[in-house]
Design goal:
By secondary structure, the protein is mostly beta strands. Helices cover 12% and strands 30% of the residues. Strand 37 (303-306) and strand 38 form a beta hairpin.
């Protein structure tokens, strides 16, 4: 694409030539001739002069020198949002997934697989499974008994969905995801010689348009479901324990651990490696900083930081006080 074509795509103000050919997007540090980079805040502006990128998407309001000969700036309201459209245009096509069942797949005769679904090599589909129209199961996916997979949902290689779990429409589960493993439930044995395992008879219910990253595990409920709300996005290596309820449109970064029976409201954002205690409530719109330890309920729209976590204003007040002590 040319810079003028990209400007039209994202609704940008073009500063510089419109005929520069862009071969793809790249970071400021790695960009070369033909690359389009992006600048979201003033901290990145200084790197533009030393970059070899041919063009940059830049958020409006930033102070930046004119691009110079043979380079262009594309000024938009939000460079991150504009970049999404660019990435969609340059993204490689997904691997072909023709309708039908591969010869090496094992499908129970009682399973209902839509004619437009794709079941890849060495998939295993159990008794009473229902797979909706346009669903895609890549190689090695394992689907337990009486599972329901919604229309247009994609299960990448080696995804495992255990018995009685329900996956909504247009969901994406990345490689190695496990849905419906037993929760971590044990009690000391009365004789003091070991532990007793608590049976888990519930399931997992994942609503529409959810995306779950590689090697994340969502445990089944002890009784009743573990629930993930519509539009929620979960990163890699996240642990969601039994009977957790996650609301709509939440963002949960990598390495987060959510203990059992925790309730998370709509629109919550949780930073990487944060840990949430069991049996607490996180209010809608709350924000939890990376590596925070949440030990009690969190109010709606609160921002929590630290271990144990406190409100962000209190956290930074304590940091300031600590600095005063150490400077004496």
């Amino acid at each position: 694409m040319t810079t003028s074509q990209i400007a039209a795509l994202v609704g940008a103000e073009l500063r510089g030539p419109g005929d520069i050919v862009i071969t793809g997007p790249c970071t400021l540090a790695l960009a070369g001739p033909g690359s389009l980079t992006f600048i979201r805040d003033q901290a990145f502006v200084a790197r533009w002069a030393g970059s070899k990128a041919s063009a940059a998407l830049i958020s409006a309001g930033l102070s930046i020198p004119e691009p110079g000969p043979g380079r262009a700036l594309l000024v938009v309201g939000d460079a991150d949002l504009a970049l999404i459209k660019v990435l969609e245009r340059f993204a490689p096509a997904p691997p072909a997934a023709p309708a039908g069942v591969h010869a090496t797949a094992i499908v129970d005769e009682s399973a209902a697989v839509a004619a437009t679904a794709h079941v890849g090599p060495q998939c295993i589909i159990g008794t009473g499974v229902h797979i909706g129209a346009g669903a895609v199961l890549y190689a090695g996916a394992i689907i337990g008994e009486h599972v329901r997979i919604g229309e247009g949902t994609i299960l990448h290689p080696r995804v495992t969905v255990m018995e009685r779990c329900i996956i909504g429409r247009r969901c994406t589960l990345h490689p190695g995801v496990v849905i419906g493993a037993d929760g971590f439930g044990y009690r000391p044995s009365p004789d003091g010689r070991g532990v007793l395992k608590i049976p888990h008879t519930g399931n997992v219910e994942i609503h529409d348009d959810v995306e779950i990253g590689a090697n994340t595990c969502v445990d089944r409920g002890k009784f009743g479901p573990t629930v993930i709300g519509a539009g929620t996005k979960i990163d890699n290596l996240v642990q969601v324990a039994h009977n957790v309820t996650i609301g709509r449109a939440c963002l949960i970064a990598g390495g987060v651990g959510i203990a059992g029976s925790t309730s998370i409201g709509d629109g919550v954002i949780i930073g990487g490696q944060a840990g949430l205690k069991d049996n607490i409530e996180i209010g809608a719109g709350a924000r939890i900083a990376a590596m925070s330890a949440i030990m009690s309920d969190v109010a709606p729209k609160a921002t929590m930081v630290g271990a144990p976590a406190v409100g962000h204003i209190e956290f930074f007040r304590r940091i300031a006080a600590l600095k005063k002590l150490t400077n004496r």
